[in-house]
Write a structure and sequence with these properties.
Distance between the termini: 11 Å
Low-confidence stretches: none
Strand content: 15-25%
Order of helices and strands: HEHEHEHEHEEHHE
Mean pLDDT: 93
Shape: globular
Helix content: 25-40%
Largest sheet: 7 strands, mixed
């Protein structure tokens, strides 16, 4: 049985708006084309940390703009629903991991995903590691509780590769998805996050996204690929 046949329902749990696109946007778009249902949960606001004062009036306007961007991204990728929490941006280390896990658990129980895609714990962005820890708590396998069959970590260009290069914390992909059919959807979706895009040679540029997918594709003989690290699989 192929992975796409097994993964009828997908949940993406990301720290910030744009992480879901950079990490697995092309893969999710591909799965949706194959008939899967995909849902997304964004944990942090995604922009407030750029302002020194937490009460800056620009923050609310920019968060509202990001939420509109998320809606447009949802249409491009094909999410059945994309939801955002209001945990503080780049300050998830100030929030109880249990509180984050409780919010994720609610969605796991309601959506009952077959697979979860989330952050790699070794990313230099501490919000990413916090979300990974919360996902592992929320999606734990215990008698009488629903849990997904598989959990994958994705990489986020401009975060994963900038972490300390050490075997204990390195992103080591062992699953590659051929995304030649949906790489354009990923690039289009990212364009909707205008506040997050950067000019080349930044990894969050249009060229950077394409080059990254080509690099991962070259590793396994494909034109374009997204790479993942399988954390857990229960057959």
């Amino acid at each position: 049985m192929t992975q796409s046949n097994r993964d009828k329902t997908i949940l993406v749990v990301a720290a910030h708006p744009d992480d879901e696109v950079l990490g697995c946007g092309a893969t999710v778009a591909l799965r949706v084309k194959l008939g899967c249902a995909a849902y997304c949960l964004i944990c942090a606001t995604g922009i407030a940390s750029r302002y020194a004062g937490g009460d800056d009036p620009k923050i609310k306007d920019e968060i509202a703009a990001l939420r509109k961007d998320m809606s447009q991204v949802s249409g491009v990728i094909g999410f059945s629903d994309i939801e955002a929490l209001d945990f503080p941006d780049n300050r998830l280390d100030t929030v109880s991991r249990q509180d984050i896990a409780d919010e994720i658990k609610k969605r796991v129980e309601r959506i009952r995903p077959d697979v979860i895609y989330t952050h790699h714990p070794g990313d230099y962005n501490w919000d990413h590691g916090r979300v990974f820890d919360a996902v592992m708590m929320a999606a734990r396998h215990s008698p009488g509780e629903y849990a997904p069959s598989r959990i994958y970590c994705f990489e986020v260009p401009s975060a994963t590769e900038r972490a300390r290069r050490h075997p204990a914390s390195a992103f080591c992909p062992n699953t590659f998805v051929d995304v030649h059919a949906t790489i354009d959807a990923k690039k289009l979706a990212m364009k909707h996050y205008q506040s997050e895009c950067r000019p080349y040679p930044h990894p969050r540029s249009n060229e950077g996204i394409e080059y990254w997918a080509r690099k991962r594709g070259l590793e396994v003989g494909l034109e374009y690929a997204e790479a993942f690290e399988l954390v857990r699989s229960v057959e």
